Amino acid sequence: MTFVTMGPMLKRAQAAGYGIAAFNMIDYNSARSIVDGAVELQAPIIVQVSVKTIRHWGFKPIATWVRMMADDVDIPVALHLDHCTDEDVIKRCIDAGWTSVMFDGSSLPFAENRARSEAIYRLTESAGVGLEAEIGAIGGVEDDKFVAEDSAILADYDECLEFVKNMPNLAVFAPAIGTAHGVYKGQPKIAYDLLERISGAVGIPIALHGGTGLSQEQFDRCISGGCAKVNISTMHKLRFIDGFLDVRQAKPKLEEPLPFIVGQYDAMKRDVCDMITAFGSRGKAAQAAGMVG
Ligand SMILES: [Zn+2]
User: Fold this and answer.
1) Domain CATH for 163
2) Would residue 266 show up in a list of annotated catalytic residues for this protein?
3) Is the pLDDT of residue 141 over 90?
């Protein structure tokens, strides 16, 4: 089924009331666990990448790995650039074969965020690539940007409407609704009413950032409120590290590296399957791809 742009599949997911998992890949093994987990459950999947991960591996290796995996499977796979403030990185991702990108202008004043998001929207539209844009401030750490949870700013309803007005084909919209990146220290205060009002008014699938650590009930309410893309990063990072270390703990004398990689892969893939199941996208590959109603 190869690569897809995420916009159409997110629209189908939103209409059918399930969420599509967007995992932040770390390396080849991690990307494979994400795609293979989705294949096992016949679910659509978004493999997303942070700017610093791209800076580590390079544009071409990542695009090549994920495209190669997508070409071999029968589920829709999107390759997405997560939180990016640098237009040059966005352009290079488009050139390297990413199927969607995020421009994060949320730390800019509203008018500037809007103007720059619109400029990138025109760029992505002409390239046939999906765009995610953000408004408000999502708490926690993303790459090297830190927003204290208590100073995270909820998106403003009227600004949301104005923000998306000239971007009707936005693939996914990320208004801050009270979730945060990283591990939650207390209970997140999710503004479900705001989410529902924004989602009902803009007619664009909504992205849920800061998915790690939310309960099934919180996922359910966000997804039924319009969140079609559910981001999981921190959980995957922790499993990447623990999956490796657990093998060392179980077999301290092991000198063969492959069992470490397999243990890490299995741990990450289990999480991918758990999250797909939690978001209701199990068995939805064909529906998300528009092959069945
Ligand atoms: Zn995020």
Assistant:
1) 3.20.20.70
2) no
3) no
